[in-house]
Amino acid sequence: MTNATAGRGRRPGGTDVALLAGVSQRTVSRVFTDGAKVTEETRQRVLAAAQQLGYRPNGAARALLTGRTYRIGVVSLGTAHFGPSSLLVALEREARAINYSLSIANSFGEDSSGLAAAMDSLLAQGVDAIILSEPIEDGDEALVADVPVLTLGRAPVVHAPTLLSVRAAEGGEAAAEVTRYLLGLGHRTVHHVAGPQRWWAARERRQHWHDTLVAAGADVPEAPEGDWTAARGHELGRALARDPGVTAIFAANDETAIGVIHALHAAGRAVPGDVSVAGFDDIPVAAHVWPPLTTVSSDNEELAATGLRYLAEFLDDPATPPAPPPKHRHQLVIRDSTAAPGREARPAHGER
């Protein structure tokens, strides 16, 4: 039996799969219902028949059968910046792997009620749960949902039947490690170009930079606030370039760091001969700017896999224990943009 014999102009259905696999239609339904008991041999036979016919289960029918849509809502920030966008791609890839679909609602920075409006939009679609992928502070009012909510990293106040959390590699310890590394090179202090402080990730990076300097007995300079863009990094970098006491800068992300380096070059200050610069995210271009950028690499693929599988297991069994944190929370990647004060970097150091 082929797709054509299932009926001209008609999509193959469960009865067609059952006939080809030699099982009942109920068995086909059980194979495509997560958690339903069926022997592995039968499962493989049904899946092979479904693939041969080009059959895809009807989501609406499955929702009626199970009371679940197998759709998870994701609140994203409506930005093309590398961190949030790469995490969103990783979440969708993992969702497909575990037979879920995603609905995405963007929360835009200029909208004061952005998070709440995005959550309301997802709830209206009947999602089984919601993921806050890049939590930010969105006013004083708590977010409210009537389905489980998973946060990737620190989050605002959320009222939900169940609140789950997987800590992201968003920056606390990573920022501290970058700061310690620059101090270890011999810099008396480290300047920081912070990210927008509505973002919890930016706050964590700034706080751990600050605390690391205090613990080391180093001076704590002011940390001008950027907006994750190279343009703002260049603007703030021009002011830092005029200060001869600045010898090391940790930028909250790589785009900001690239803007800072541009400003330093334009002011005639060598990187890293006069000023060392480090970023965060390890965006694809970071290894190819001049000089190649020292930065922090985080594993969004692993974070997405950990978070989504934890959430899916919880939806199947609310007694599921908490997920372990990602194994590789971050990695300091040392390149040629950092060196001891007044000294050019050696050729690429690689990963640490």
Briefly characterize the structure.
The protein has 352 residues and is α/β, with parallel strands linked by helices. It has helices spanning 14-21, 25-31, 40-53, 59-66, 82-97, 114-124, 172-184, 200-216, 230-241, 254-266, 300-316, and strands spanning 71-76, 101-106, 129-132, 143-144, 149-152, 158-159, 163-166, 191-193, 248-251, 276-278, 295-297, 331-334, 350-351.
Could you please describe the fold and organization of this structure?
- With 352 residues, the protein is α/β, with parallel strands linked by helices.
- The protein folds into three domains: 4-66, lambda repressor-like DNA-binding domains (434 Repressor (Amino-terminal Domain)), CATH 1.10.260.40; 71-166 and 300-316, 3-Layer(aba) Sandwich (Rossmann fold), CATH 3.40.50.2300; 172-294 and 335-351, Response regulator (Rossmann fold, 3-Layer(aba) Sandwich), CATH 3.40.50.
- The chain contains eleven helices and 13 strands.
- The strands form four sheets. A five-stranded parallel beta sheet has the order 2-1-3-5-7. A three-stranded parallel beta sheet has the order 8-9-10, sandwiched between helices. Strands 11-12-13 form a three-stranded antiparallel beta sheet, with helices on one face.
- Helix 5 crosses helix 11 (300-316) and helix 7 (172-184) packs parallel to helix 8.
- The protein is elongated and about 80 Å long.
- The chain starts with 13 loop residues before the first helix and ends with a strand.
